[in-house]
């Protein structure tokens, strides 16, 4: 169906839905003083809806809609890159860029007339930003606290190459279960060797010893050694 076949007011309803959804998403961003707030997200969602509606106007099949949607993704990608900035060694604004991307998706759904799906998408974007940000902040605070202690170790494990992936998965899971360890880097090779650099809050090294013991109990490890990088 193209716009010419839509009932009177249906075009406006779709566009309004897109702007309302974008506004709701943008309100959460502006409340947290992010670069892209109400206006940006509303315009992104509304613009995506307009492009989809244009596609419906110029064709009687769905081919133009799919092409327009693909180009919306590309265009919004450039817009998202514009809100990201480098702050020292860190990149800030990635979450806001992702939110703009989601606003475009919600707007495209609204433009296609999928009002329920667009509202559900809006809900998940807003709730995701509200709930996941504190969780991410808590994790980041833990990582920073561990890194700032200066306790850094290199753990090297040797095993048959066939079980490298299994051992790596076990190591990552065990470390994530602790409150005192954080993986700074992790690499493996085809010779059956895993090398992990680990930050630790426990100066007694008991947490690292417990990790080593657990891995030896679960897997046929040929040898394990670790060194204190701080003392070297």
Give structural attributes.
2 domains, alpha+beta, Alpha-Beta Plaits, about 230 residues, 4-stranded antiparallel β-sheet, two-stranded antiparallel ribbon, elongated, about 15% strand
Protein model, in words:
Helix 2 (38-58) packs antiparallel against helix 3 (63-83) and helix 2 (38-58) runs parallel beside helix 4 (94-111). It contains seven helices and six strands, in the order H-H-H-E-E-H-H-E-H-E-E-H-E. It folds into two domains: 3-144, no CATH class; 149-231, Alpha-Beta Plaits (2-Layer Sandwich). The strands form two sheets. It has a four-stranded antiparallel β-sheet. A two-stranded antiparallel sheet has the order 1-2. 61% of the residues lie in helices and 17% in strands. The termini are far apart. By secondary structure, it is of the alpha+beta class.
Class by SSE composition: alpha+beta
* Bulk shape: elongated
Total helix count?
7
The main β sheet shows up as: 4 strands, antiparallel
Per DSSP E runs of 2 or more residues, the count of β-strands stands at: 6
Strand order of the largest sheet: 4-5-3-6
Give the H and E element order. HHHEEHHEHEEHE
Helix content estimate: 55-70%
Number of domains: 2
- What are the low-pLDDT stretches, counting only 5+ consecutive residues below 50? none
Beta-strand fraction estimate: 15-25%
Q: Give the CA-CA distance, first to last residue.
A: 71 Å
* Average pLDDT rating: 79
Radius of gyration: 25 Å
């Amino acid at each position: 169906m193209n716009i010419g076949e839509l009932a009177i007011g249906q075009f406006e309803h779709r566009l309004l839905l897109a702007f309302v959804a974008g506004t709701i998403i943008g309100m959460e961003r502006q409340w947290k003083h992010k670069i892209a707030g109400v206006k940006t997200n509303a315009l992104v969602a509304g613009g995506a809806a307009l492009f989809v509606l244009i596609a419906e106007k110029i064709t009687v099949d769905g081919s133009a809609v799919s092409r327009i949607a693909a180009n919306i993704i590309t265009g919004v990608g450039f817009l998202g890159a514009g809100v990201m900035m480098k702050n020292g060694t860190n990149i800030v604004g990635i979450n806001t860029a992702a939110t703009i991307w989601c606003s475009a998706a919600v707007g495209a759904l609204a433009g296609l007339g999928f009002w329920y799906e667009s509202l559900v998408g809006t809900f998940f974007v807003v709730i995701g930003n509200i709930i996941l940000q504190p969780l991410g902040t808590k994790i980041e605070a833990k990582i920073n606290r561990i890194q700032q202690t200066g306790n850094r170790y290199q753990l090297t494990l040797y095993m048959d190459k066939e079980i490298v992936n299994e051992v790596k998965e076990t190591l990552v899971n065990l470390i994530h279960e602790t409150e005192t360890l954080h993986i700074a880097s992790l690499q493996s090779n085809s010779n059956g060797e895993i090398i992990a650099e680990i930050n630790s809050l426990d100066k007694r090294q008991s947490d690292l010893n417990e990790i080593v013991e657990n891995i030896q109990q679960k897997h046929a490890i040929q040898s394990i050694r670790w060194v204190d990088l701080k003392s070297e």
